[in-house]
Design a protein that fits this description.
This protein has 74 residues and is an alpha+beta fold. It has one domain. The chain contains two helices and two strands; from the N terminus they run αββα.
Length: 74
């Protein structure tokens, strides 16, 4: 719990220190956001991509292991 609170405090400090408005363009969408928010959205998006790739790899390894066990059990 203490680590989570420390991370939350660091995020709040990050947002406060990065209040400059920046123009963001993505797939035809254009807008202005605070720089800290833009960085945070990019980081969350990257984390989601990594989680999807990791999950796909785990499923691939499980499928391979299941097939290997079927072959050795025959």
């Amino acid at each position: 719990m203490a680590v989570s609170l420390a991370v939350l405090v660091l995020l709040i400090i990050f947002f406060i220190q990065n209040q400059d408005m920046v123009e963001v363009k993505f797939l035809g969408w254009e807008g202005r956001l605070a720089q800290g928010v833009a960085f945070f959205i990019a980081a969350v998006g990257g984390g989601i991509l990594v989680a999807i790739a990791g999950g796909a790899r785990i499923l691939q390894l499980r499928r391979t292991e299941r097939r290997r066990r079927k072959v050795t059990n025959l």
